[in-house]
Amino acid sequence: MFSDHAPGLASPQDSREVVHRIRNPESPMISRPSRCAAAAVFALAIVASTARAQTMQGMPHEHATDSTPASSAAAATVNVYRDHGDFVVDIGPIDLPAHAMHDMIRQPPVAERAAGVDGWLHGYRIEITEAAGDSVPHSIVHHIVVIEPQRRDLFTPLMLRLAAAGAETSPIVMPRFIGYRMQPTDSILVSAMVHNPTDRSYHGVHVKIRMPFTSASSWIPTLSIFPMSLDVMPPSGGHSFDVPPGRSEFHWEGSPGVGGRILGVSGHLHKYGVLLQLEDRTEHKILWRIEPDTDAFGNIKDIPISNFMLTFGLEIRPDHVYRLTAVYDNPTGATIVDGGMGALGGVFHPTGSWPSPNRSDALYRFDWKYTWRDTIAPNDAPMRMQP
């Protein structure tokens, strides 16, 4: 909540400026963020989830056909319900033959469900069991993405990504005084892909996304936060890019849909990434800059969390233009195809009303159709694809 090569679709032109350039910037300074608040821990989980969600949304969902071993398996369903203080998204049952790639398994359908709750979500964790009740390794999860179509992303007109998880995703837990507000009229879109890299078959598997929940009637005051993300590539489709030899720069510019304060932030780069930076272009001011810790081979070892809680956050304004920049230094002498990514994610507290999505916007419609692309029969597409 709040978040690899992947082929993507060509997205329509954004209404704002989209910049993708290569040049030779000067070497930047390094910043050392603090690590002291719960919101900062959450920010790290957000950016990892968001970056993974952006990439995974661009991956083709290869569903099983009649010729695959999984063709006789019952189709999974997606259900939502309350259970022991959690809001639960339940995906299953799924049969997973041993050593089965995702195209050998009947994948869960993309599904939209009414949330039917009024209150606050405080993170999420993944729970996986088979029919007998035994636990199943998390390695069977290729990806899970939870989207709220009633709300838009902060910087783009795309649908808001609430949660994303892969096999390596750890539980994300927030204190009760920080949460994401769900309204009774909200719905969620769930997209998941599973595989089975293990040597054991699993039957009747259920993958549950459990989100700690507090009712809106609770006496505990809750600070409303939203997930935020930025990427150096244009919105929609795949977010990987080619990394040329030498030093190169990639960036994207845009303005937020509402003003507010960034409470915590971190980033995501691939091998040979040397800088990620957020800049207020209107005031010519660097808001956040990090040079990641790398090993001798250029692999990213760590991108620390920056926590701005003690200074009441970094202010951003809808009348300002912001730029996210990723810098790579590729020593191989050859272009690394789809070798780069540059993403930022964090916790955002709005100071105004969150903007409603424009369902007629070309990017919103593209995002909606792209999310549903593998679960709609061609003859049904005109009806189901209308957001």
Features:
single chain; 387 residues; mainly beta; eight-stranded mixed sheet; five-stranded antiparallel sheet; 3 helices; 25 strands; 41% strand; globular; disordered N terminus; disordered C terminus
Please specify the SSE layout and strand pairing.
Layout: H1 38-57, E1 77-83, E2 86-96, E3 111-114, E4 119-121, E5 123-129, E6 141-152, E7 159-165, E8 172-173, E9 178-182, E10 187-194, E11 202-215, E12 223-224, E13 226-231, E14 241-243, E15 246-254, E16 260-269, E17 273-280, E18 285-290, E19 293-294, E20 300-302, E21 306-307, E22 314-316, E23 322-330, E24 336-340, E25 342-350, H2 362-372, H3 381-384
Parallel strand pairs: 9-12
Antiparallel strand pairs: 1-2, 2-11, 3-10, 4-9, 4-11, 5-8, 5-11, 6-7, 6-10, 13-25, 14-24, 15-23, 16-21, 16-22, 16-25, 17-18, 17-23, 19-20
Description:
It is a single chain. 9% of the residues lie in helices and 41% in strands. The strands form 6 sheets. Strands 1, 2, 4, 5, 8, 9, 11 and 12 form an 8-stranded mixed beta sheet that branches. Strands 13, 16, 21, 22 and 25 form a 5-stranded antiparallel beta sheet that branches. It has helices at residues 38-57, 362-372, 381-384, and strands spanning 77-83, 86-96, 111-114, 119-121, 123-129, 141-152, 159-165, 172-173, 178-182, 187-194, 202-215, 223-224, 226-231, 241-243, 246-254, 260-269, 273-280, 285-290, 293-294, 300-302, 306-307, 314-316, 322-330, 336-340, 342-350. It has a domain at 75-223 and 358-380. The chain is globular, with a radius of gyration of 21 Å. It is mainly β.
